Structures are given as C-alpha cells and as structure tokens.
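Exam revision sheet. Question 4 asks you to relate a sequence to its structure. Input first:
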Amino acid sequence: MRYHAYELAHAYISPMRFGVQALHSMAESPLNPFSYTPVGKALSAGCEVFENITRRYGKPDFNIDTMKVGGRTCAVSEHNVLEKPFCRLKYFKRDLQRPGRKDDPTVLIVAPMSGHYATLLRGTVQAMLPDHEVYITDWIDARQVPLSQGNFDLDDFIDYVIEFVDFLGPDTHIIGVCQPSVPVLAAVALMAKRGDPCQPASMTLMGGPIDTRRNPTVVNKLAEEKPIEWFESQVISSVPFPNPGYMRRVYPGFMQLTGFMTMNLDRHVNAHWDLFSNLVKGDQDSVTKHQEFYEEYLAVMDLTAEFF
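Answer key, structure tokens:
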C-alpha cells in the first residue's frame, strides 16, 4: 500500500506542478517587468525550489564523452557489452589513437546496489580511464524488470560478478566500492577455490565493511535490534501497475531515499534554503552545484525484496 500511496501522491500533485511551472515561466520572463523586482525574483526562486523537491528524478547519465591523456583530448564512448536481467556490463571505449601503446590493464568496477545508480561512481571512472580499460556494473531498477525474469538475491549478485569476470578474461582487476565488498570477496574466493583461470589479478575493496561487528553504525545496530520479519513488514512493497515490474516485491527507492535524508535532515533543509537564496541573488554557480548534486542524490532505484 505504501507504493500505491506514493504513486497516488505523485499523480495528485501533478496538476499543481504544471501550475507552478506556468507561474515560474511567467515570473522569470524577461518581458515581464515584475521579474526584475525582489518579489518577482523570490516568486521565481520559490517555484524552482518547489519543482526540484517534487520532481521524480530519473536515472542520470554518465556523460563521459572525452578524457585527457598526456595533454591530449580523446573521445570516450559507452557500450553495453553484456546484458543480464538485473544488470548491464558497461564498457567505456577510448579513442586513444596512439600507435605502439601497450595494452592497459582491464578493471571491473562493481558499483553498489544499495539505492543509487552506478553513475554515483562517475568520478572514479573518469579517474581510471586514462590508464585502464574500464568496465562497470550498471544495475537495473527492479521496478523495470518483469516478474518473468525471476528473482535476484545475494547469490545471484555473486554469480553476476563471477560471470562478468569470466567474460572479461584473465588478468582482470576488480574493485568493489562500498556495498559490493562482501559479494565481491565471496565471488573471488569461489573462483580461487575452484581454480578458475580467469580469477582476478587483484581485488580492491573500498569503504565496505566485511565484519559489521567492527565499528557498528546506527544501521548495523538497527539490524541487530529488529527481526528480519520486522523489516519485511515495514519496508517491502509490491511494484504497482503499469510499471514493467508490476507485482514484484521490492524495497522501494523512495523509502531508501527517505532513510538517507532523515539521517541528515537539517543539512538537506538548509541546502534547499540556500538554493532559494542563491536563486534570488542570481548566484548561478552555487545553483548549478546544488542541482548537479541533488540530481544524482535524489535518483534512486528499487531493490528486489529477496536481495534486501
């Protein structure tokens, strides 16, 4: 019912959004003398803040078209080289045009599947591109995956990692960022145990706790205090019609986002108040930085119930 209530709220507020957008266009029009007054600027800023906090944010793009290598600009293009029901293996092809260059090492970046999209690691990809053949796991929103594609749990995550490494071949380096640290460690251990010729040349785990009993966070403590049935009853919902994943049981992205934001609610409230102030002042650089951050932060995906 929570998911249906969320969808209903979006539908209910849509007419209001259209009205505010029309008011915004009128309030900021250069042909409107009122737009140059303090009241007009405040009205325009308020409309834009309202649009920002009520919009549903879609999946961001990586937008990596070029890179710098040795002072030269090279083109970069994205390619999905392997597609699974819940993930695409994305490759960033570099147009180096440098004869005689030795092959750069291949690196697989395993992005978190914990609410945000793989684009959160855009900076990591950009930093590694000049010296590596870069691949990344581009996880798919469970809301977009039909029930006919089956379930996806922790074992499937591990299987995906193994399949991707086997696909890339020997001498692949693997990096697990945050949440994937445990499944990446499990995948590499399984490959080593069975003597897989494609087991990674190196494994790097970044910011992901292997033993959550060490330095426990608020989230760790909550997980210990509540039985698994409590989480199932409180956060699991079914995807409503007409989404492709209709009837799939998921941990909805909007509930994850609510949890993220309530942990630092004052910070987010102040950030949007600053946005309003900067819009009124015309500080476009600060406005752009705010919007770039929140377009990424507010874009969230559903996780399958069994994985959660």
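Marking note for examiners. Residues 2-28 form the longest helix (27 residues).
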